Amino acid sequence: MTAMERSAHLIHARSPLFQRRLEQADACVDEMLRTAQHPYVACSFGKDSTALLWVVAQHWPGARVQCLTGGESRLLHSEIDEHSAWWRREFPLMHLAEVKVDHVFSDEWSEATFEEQYLSFHASQLGTTEWAAYLHSSADWDGVFLGLRSDESFKRAVQNSARARGCVTPIRRYSEARTDAAAGMYVACPLALWTDADVAALIVSRGLPLLSTYKRDGFSARTKLRLGKTAMDLGQVEELRRRDPAAYNRLLQRFPELGGNR
Asked: By residue range, what is the domain housing residue 147?
């Protein structure tokens, strides 16, 4: 991040537009905390979930936070432990839990191809997606805060436009007809109307921790803690090769087929 870029982010943080976005996010968090009795915050340490966690923590210092990682997560992002320590230090009442699911380097998955271990998360033995199986069902949750923004895709814009009865936008509710642990859960997306500029303004002005990908490629970059098809579409394998050859070689040793993605 250049000095000029940093200055622009700080200027935007003082703008009336950013203040309105922050007020909207605050209102959503307040509404969610009145609506759900046992919510948690989903965190990936990406730019959006970092901004989300800070906003929620202003209203709920003892927030319950869950981060889903895989065996390859620390190869992709070596700062995970450093960021976890930062949040625990700055918000000592916060309960930040890591949900570790290793289908990459664990012994029982040692013979699985990249495709096989990837698909296992989307058709697990529990009959649900990885999200419901490993996060929603980890406790008796009735709501989740997500750092989803409408401007990222048309699908997310549609999802964030849905309303739950008695709740203000952008809170919705999963259908009671679902057969997994997410059935009936409230979903709050306080940053639904935010842009990259808003997220950058908050992170820079509050001095929040930032993954190296954003420091190098800017706030328009996107990251994933798990190496799936979306992460590969974002070019994270190639980025890893450039940034950390040792980590890249370890991943390639495990999945030689990824060498074709250079």
From this structure: 3-257
Distances from the Cα of 146 to the Cα of 57, 94, 110, 186, 244, angstroms? 13, 17, 32, 11, 29
What is the spatial distance between Cα 109 and Cα 135, in angstroms, rounded to a whole number? 21
Q: What is the pLDDT of residues 188-231, one digit of tens each?
A: 999 999 999 999 999 999 999 999 888 888 888 888 887 776 66
Asked if 145 and 32 count as a contact pair (C-beta separation under 8 A), the reply is: yes
Residue 137, Cβ density class (10 Å: 0-12 exposed, 13-18 middle, ≥19 buried): middle
Please check whether residue 102 lies inside any domain of the structure. Answer: yes
CATH number at residue 188: 3.40.50.620
140 residue type, one letter: D
pLDDT, tens digit, for every residue of 37-96? 999 999 999 999 999 999 999 999 999 999 988 888 888 888 999 999 999 999 999 999
Angle at alpha carbon of residue 80, lines to 207 and 111, rounded to 5° = 160
Global pTM?
0.85
Let me know how many helices (H) and strands (E) the chain has, helices first: 13, 6
CA dist 190 and 35 (Å) reads 14
Q: Which of 219, 251, 253 is nearest to 232 (CA)?
A: 251
- 262 assigned to some structural domain: no
